[in-house]
Each structure stands twice: as C-alpha cells, then as structure tokens.
Amino acid sequence: MNWNLTTLLLFFVGSLFAQTPTQTIRGTIRDAATTQALIGATVQLVDQTQSTVTDGEGQFRLEEVAVGRQQLQINYLGYEGIILPILLESGKEVVLNIELEGSQTGLDTVVVRSSRLAAVQPLSSQTIGIEETFRYSATFYDPARMMTLYPGVVNVNNQANAISVRGNSPNFNQWRLEGVEIVNPNHTPNAGTFSDRITQSAGGVNILSAQLLDYSTFLTSAYQAQYGNALGGILDMNLRDGNAEQHEFIGQIGLIGIDLAAEGPISKKSGASYLANYRYSTIGLLSDLGVDLGDEEIRFQDLSVNLSFPTQKAGDFTLFGIWGASDNIFITDRDSTLWEESKDQFDIIFDSRTTIFGGTHQLQVGDRGLWKTSVAISELESGRTQEGVFTTEDFFVQDQERYAKTAFHSFYNYQFSPLHQFRFGVNATQHDFDTNIENERSPTRINQSAWQLHTYLNWEARWSNRFSSTVGLAFSNFDLNENSTALEPRLSLNYNLTNKQSLHLAYGLHSQIQLPRVYISGFFQGTQPSNAQLGLSRAHHLVLGYHYALNASTRLEVEAYFQQLFDIPIGTRDNDFFSAINILEESDIGWVLANAGEGQNYGLEISLQKTLLDDYYFLANLSLFKSQFITMDNIARDTRWNGNYAFNTTGGKEWKWQKKERQMILGLNLNVAFLGGFRETPIDLAASRLVGTTVFDNDNPFAINQPNFFKTDLRIYYKRNKSKYNTTLALDIQNLTNAQNVAFQYYDSVQDEILTQFQLGLIPILTWRVEF
C-alpha cells in the first residue's frame, strides 16, 4: 500500500516537472552598414541565465533552449541594443542574421519585430517577420494583405491583395524582390477587378509562399534615394536562407493550398544551403477530383527555390527561381433558359504564368565597405478568352498580355566613420511589354521595350546623440522617349527630444513610368501609338512624424503627410475627366492623353502598437485622409480611392501549458476594420440598355460614395511542441459577421438592371501545419 502511494506521488510530481522540449537558437551578428562580423557581442535570453558571446566570425549558439516565446537581448558597445521576440519550436532551429545599427541616439534598449530592423524605425515604413503573417487573421499568409493592418493602407477589394497607400492607386505601388523591381508576383492577377482583366499591381494570392520568405519592408512615402519608379507604396520582399546544418521539412494543408517545403545543407563545410517550396491550390485539387465547387474553377500552383553559397573570400552568393501558374475557368450552361446574368452568355477562360529568376552577390570590402549586387529576370504572361454562346451569332474576344522586366541593382556602401556613411548605386531595368487583342472588329498587336536607369547617391550623417540626417539625390531616365528624365532630391531629418521621443521630417521628389496599356493606347500616329510619348508621372512627398516609445514593447507613432502629384496623364478632349490616378486594371483607354493632370493626397495617421510580450499584443491605428485629382477644367474632384478615413485594430493573446513532454499554445487573434467607402462613377442606365453593357456617366466622375466597409476577422490556433516536431491547427474566419461590403456596380443585360457586386463574405479557412 505504501509502495503504491509512493509510486503515484512520484508520477504526479514527475508530471508537474515534465521536461519541456528544447531547441537551438543560433545565428550571426553583423554591422548593418558594412556586414562586418561583430566579435564579442552579448546574446542573452531575457529573464533567464542562458547567454553567450559571438565568436571571431560574429556567430553565436544557444542550445537546449525551452521552446515557446522567448526574448533575445543583443548588446554590443557602440551599437543600439535590441530585444528580439522569437518563437522557438521543436523540429525547427531558429537561425538569425542580425544586423545592428551604430549608436546614434542613446535610446533605451527596445523591442523590434525583425532581426534586420534597427532600434529606430525609419519614417513611413514597416518591417515585418513572416511569423506575424501566421499569427494575424485575414492575411492569407500574404505580406501584402498583412500591410492592410497598418496606417494609411487600405485593401481595394478583399478578393485580391490590391492596396491603396495614402490615397494612391494600387498601380502606383511597386513590387521588389531582393532589392530589385519585378513584375506583379501574384496568381490570378484579374481578381477583384471590374473588367475581369489583368492588373499590374495585385492578384488573388502571392506566388511566393510564406515558407520561403524571410522579412519584408514596406515603404509608404518619402523613401530614400535608392528607391525609384513608384509614387505609392513599395513592398520589398526577401528570401530566407535554408538551414546550413541540418535538413528540415514543412507540410501545410488548408483552403489556400497544399504546401511542401524542404531545406538543408548542400555543403556543411562551406555553409551552402538550399530551400525549396511547392504549393498547389486545394480548391484546384478538389476540382481535379471532380468535386463541384460552383460555377468557376480556380487553380494555381507554384514552385520556389533559393540556394545560398557563402565563401571565405569571394563573398556570399544566392540563386533563386520562382514559377507560378493560375487559371480561372467559367464554362456556362448551354441551356439559355438557366441564364441569370449577362456573364452566363459567355465561356470565359483566364490564365497567367509568372517566372522569376535571379541572384545576389554580397562582398565586404575592407573594414568599411560593402558591395552588393542583385539581378532578377521576371515575366508575367496572361490571357483571357471570352466567347459568346448565342444561338444566332458568335462573339469572340481574346486578350494576350506579356510584361517582362530585366532588373539590375548594384551599390557600394562606405562607412567613413561610425557617424558618416555614403552609398552609391545603380538601378537598371528593362521594361518589355507586348499586347495582342484579337476580336472580329479591330485586332491589335503592339510591342514596346525600353530601359529605365536610376542612379543615386545617399549620405547618412549622425551629428550628435540627438540629431541625424539622410541626404540623397537620384537621376532617373526612361529611354522610351525624350520626355522621361527626372532629377530627384531626397532629405530626411531626425531629432531625438528624449531617449524615448523623436521628431522626423522627410521630403522627396519621386517619379514613375506609365502602365504598359497607357503607353500603347490612344490614336496612332504613323506606326506608334500617340501615348508612347508620355513622360513620367511625378510627385512631391512631405512627411512629419512623431515617435514615442512608451516602454520597451509599446510605441505611439503619429505622422502627417502631404503629396502633390503632377505630370499625370489625363484626357485632352473637352469634358474629359480621365486621369491615370484612377486606373486599377489595364482596360482599354482609347484616346490621346497628355502629362497635364495633377492630384493631391494629404492626411494624418495615428498608430499604437504593442509587440508580443507578456503573452499579448495589439495594433490600433486611425487614418484620416483626402485624395483628389485635377483634369483639364482645373477642378479638384475626389479620386476613386478617397475613403476619407480608415480604422483598424487587431490584437491577440496566447495561453501556454505543459503536459508530460509536450508544450501547448492556444492563440487568439481578432481584427476589426472600419473604412470609409471608395468612390464610383454613376451608371447611365438608358445608354447601357442601348449597347447592352455598362456605360458610365463620365460627366460626373466618382460622384457616388460607396457605403462604409466593415469587417471582423478571427483566428484561433493551437500549437503542439513534441521532442522532434511541432504542429499547428488554425481556424481563420474571414468576415466573421458576413458583412456585405460593396465592390462595384454594373449593368446586367439579362436582368436589365443595375446590380451590385459584393466583396468576400464569410470564409472559414482551416489549416494544419507540421514542421520536423
């Protein structure tokens, strides 16, 4: 009896002190300006005794660290100290490449969200790690959708990841990969558009799976001189290196797709590694198996590879390749008595193919220099065929679009002293676009190719513990015509009021080339379209910001901005209110344009954010803004994107407990968005009935204010860590209240009335993920 009681007590006590699964944290700490290894940097787990220092190559290793949320504090004499929250899980090591900024402000050690984020975040920018896209709701594991949680960024239509940044068109944004410009990297790039035609700015989902991404930097305005060819936001995505010491695998299945990822060493001696990911859409797989999922079949798949080859003397090399394909097929019923809308009169097939290949090279030059080069060749091909199935006549239209970019970016960074560094760089991008429109009336094929050169010089100076500045100058030229040259000054000033508060002022003159369809539209003059002579669109950006670090994990940010746009292409005819500011998809324009338009965006943004510490986090922001365009009559009108206000709040909490040799985490995230409605042009019902399709009342452009947008998203996830692997089961409910948010209106010839197209309703997304 006593022996049995003792056994039970030992079992009970043992269960209370069950061994928590452990994992390794390792990485490298370097100077952000030169990538020189920082020897002797202190690396310590917050509130724990485990610590280490970096070796002669700047590397560190912490072994047998308990899995779960940890905080890594890094300090080095003469550099800003940071605290980096990390999620440590069994089955997958955490490998960090940490870059520290030289001390300039005397700020307290603060919590950052990315291993490559300085203690002081640059003005009008956000840097996120991919772990946040797995934790926040409504992201579809897509960094572009993640950006809609931040101030000044609004999703145009949640069927796609098109975003309006500070009142600008999504076409004013730019996609970048590893520091170079690329084509639109999204599946189904016609998603969420009125005309069901391609857009160069967005799509249904990013072809780059989150498994492959490291961190992304998003800039909203007044960016530094190395960035060009954008008037709105810039999303610069970066690929992570594979684990160079051991092979690891990830499997994930959900409504978005089936993901399979593998990574590991190519050579443990040299540190070379691979990372590969393949994804196939779940809906497409079910369609392939014969499951009826409605009137449309949507499929996509993508394959991504990133190879890393570090060397001792020649620098670090990477090679990457991304391929993606998507299809959207609608085959109508041949029984016309079953037709309910005008779309039912056609078979519509849309397909797109995207390829991106490139590489990078990074070389430390002496103790103070860094030379980095990135190259990428990207191409997006899409086709849309619409064929009528009338009994009396056939109607056929086929669009073929091809847009390719060959991009090169090389810069040299030299640090004269810890207080001054210079960067000189060259961006060269070839834009090659080919459009082929076939129909019974006027078949058209146009091809254009031209190079854009963007050279720049940037000087960062730290004058004291309180004051620093960045001065830049860029020269941009697009050789399609002689009207596309620009000299662009940039300036940023930072002043630290205290060790917790700072003021920021930034100015920039920016330019952007036109969309391919803008250049190749219009009436022809000889063999060239008249709009091929259009010059660059330009804008002055001015931003004033105030940052206040309330504590190590919570900060308040306030920014006021003004953007004056000019040289915008507009219509030249009387009573013509067309402006390129309002374009989303690349539909036909069909008339002559001139760089005579203007526009302005101004607003105020307030954001309060707490990083995930103490098992909870939140982000709340309010944006108040005005967006207007001006055409030939010199009257300021609301743009398509003028919603006037946007309120977003998201927050979450985690609960952790231990059972035997397993650790469990239950997480909850709730997001609420309340946005002012966009603008749309009224439909002329009488004219629409005459021609059988939508005809807008263009004498009153964007005179209708759509209803306000409201959406609530919920994410619940359950993580389990065992000794050799971890699993995550997540339920993501998009639009929890099933709110009907208006996308646009159109005239339907079958019903002979104006109908409303709504955005996505309630969508539950169940995902299961395993890492080992």
Tell me the layout of helices and strands:
Blueprint: H1 2-16, E1 22-31, E2 42-45, E3 51-53, E4 59-66, E5 68-75, E6 82-88, E7 94-100, E8 110-111, E9 125-129, H2 130-135, H3 143-147, E10 153-155, E11 163-165, E12 174-177, E13 180-181, E14 186-187, E15 205-206, E16 213-219, E17 234-239, E18 248-253, E19 258-267, E20 272-280, H4 282-288, E21 296-310, E22 316-330, E23 346-365, E24 369-388, E25 396-417, E26 420-439, E27 444-462, E28 467-478, E29 485-496, E30 501-512, H5 516-519, E31 524-525, E32 528-529, E33 537-549, E34 554-571, E35 593-613, E36 616-630, E37 636-638, E38 645-659, E39 662-675, E40 679-680, H6 685-691, E41 704-705, E42 709-721, E43 726-734, E44 742-748, E45 753-758, E46 763-771
Parallel strand pairs: 1-7, 6-8, 12-17
Antiparallel strand pairs: 1-4, 2-3, 2-5, 5-6, 9-16, 10-11, 12-13, 14-15, 16-17, 18-19, 18-46, 19-20, 20-21, 21-22, 22-23, 23-24, 24-25, 25-26, 26-27, 27-28, 28-29, 29-30, 30-33, 31-32, 33-34, 34-35, 35-36, 36-37, 36-38, 38-39, 39-42, 40-41, 42-43, 43-46, 44-45
